[in-house]
Amino acid sequence: MHGAVLLDARDEVVRPALIWCDQRTEPQVEALSELFGKDRLIQLTCNAPLTNFTLTKLLWVRENEPQNWERVAHIMLPKDYVLFQLTGERATDMADASGTLLLDVAKRKWSSEVLSRTGIDPQLLPSLWESPEVCGRVSARGAEATGLLVGTPVVAGAGDQAAGAVGMGIIRAGAVSATIGTSGVVFAATDGPALDPKGRLHTFCHAIPGRWHVMGVTQAAGLSLRWFRDRFGTGQGETGADARDPYERLCEEAAAAPPGSDGVLWAPYLMGERTPHCDPNARAALIGLSATHTRAHVIRAILEGVAFSLRDSFTIFREMNVPVDRIRLGGGGARSALWRQIQADVYGHAVEVVQPEEGAAYGAAILAGTGAGHWRSVDEACDAVVRTAQQIQPDPKRCAILDEAYRNYRRIYPALRQISSRGLAENL
Prior knowledge:
Layout: E1 5-7, H1 26-36, H2 38-45, H3 54-64, H4 66-71, E2 74-76, H5 78-87, E3 91-93, H6 94-97, E4 103-104, E5 109-110, H7 112-118, E6 127-129, E7 134-137, H8 140-146, E8 153-155, H9 160-167, E9 174-180, E10 184-190, E11 202-205, E12 212-218, H10 222-232, H11 246-254, E13 265-267, E14 285-287, H12 295-320, E15 324-330, H13 337-347, E16 351-355, H14 360-371, H15 378-385, E17 387-392, H16 396-409, H17 412-427
Parallel strand pairs: 3-6, 9-15, 15-16
Antiparallel strand pairs: 1-2, 4-5, 7-8, 9-10, 10-12, 11-12, 13-14, 16-17
Helix pairs in contact: 1-2, 1-3, 9-14, 10-12, 11-12, 12-13, 13-16
């Protein structure tokens, strides 16, 4: 999602893609806020400007690499470049287009006002389709490259989060997913374009025609645990005696520490933060350490800190009256029994895992099957093939401990912000 793939008139790539987590575009975010006013841009696109969104990357290339920008004849998102190679069609879906900051999300069309005022030629953009619609067929060139049959229908598809939600059955209002991959996402299906006036959540078109979703994002969710693994190792078994998955070993070690990690807290801002702070300059912090704490406390604090960060999105859902009846877990974090239980206890709500657990790939297959006519709708497909494998109940005693820890966690970012602002002022 959000990446900028730029092609010239000969359909050759102009420069390496700027991907979703690229943070270089803060000046362009500030310029957009000044050009439109943050409130107006939220009205136009249902979203506040962020460094992650594609429009900011386009403006960065135009301002910093004018020779490259002069060559640009076509703009695509990463998955849509694959579709182009398969079919020769330049197309994107409503869900993925929502993350460009160029789409009028409420009306499901490109925003003429945003395009006009930012000077982006609409001819550069792909055509818009609903996710399960067939937008092309495998060409001879695509067939030669892949072994697929010429003429095989190709649907518009969706970005990983919307496709993952379909794969987990998050298709109706009240259904919510919490996915921990490199980033973490809390995703709620809605019947209309629910809007956070403060711009802390993203409001996107869903992969299901006529529906939308709201989404909160933690930049460094699973990345937090990977960062610890890469910097500090996985413990005693890493010499070869213990061949288990390294994350399994880390979670086993974390289980030795009590809920609340004896006061240790982790703020997972390794790559800035999106929800709720919209701050690319936020930095991570591990606080509350004493000489009595162990590696187990630190690892458990990381698992809990990521869940606290995701809980921020649920807190905003309550403010917006977005219903949360069912929470399903996805991503690598859902494979850990400890992390599943931590999430149930942090959210204070039963959580589920589904079978199968392929997530986004499974959702893409459902969209393709619907487009090919195997089901009449995405709803019908999900009802037929998505099943709950396990439900985990929250423990009231642990919930009480983690509620108190979450209240302390919420005090970390303002303190970090004050420290970073003071440091910047002193440097200036």
